[in-house]
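Lab manual, section 2.4: Encoding a predicted structure.

Procedure: take the sequence of the chain (108 residues), apply the prediction step described in section 2.3, and record the output as structure tokens. A sample record is shown.
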Amino acid sequence: MPKTFAGAVYDVVDLLDSKRQWLPFLVAIGLTLASLGLFANLYMYMVFQHQKGIVDIIPLVYLNLVLCASFILFSAVQIAFFIKMRRYLKQIEAFERTVQDDFKKICM
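Recorded output:
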């Protein structure tokens, strides 16, 4: 049976709605990991800045900084996607209301 355009649109809306529930959780995890990593980075730098020896801690500090930056970038991309998706869902809801109002006018 061929799928109608309206059915396909509702499938997309359902998919976006299901993803919308997970996005704040993903953003919170990403920002929490980034803040914990930056705290660990600051702690490692403060504790080991005067220590010179076989194992230098500065490369670990830079690696941790890069990981935290990647978490922040991931969270920023998720936030941008969330805002974009919310705008699309509002447009779809407005279109749905318009179609429903027009249908009511035609039927009455």
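Check your result against the sample. Residues 58-107 form the longest helix (50 residues).
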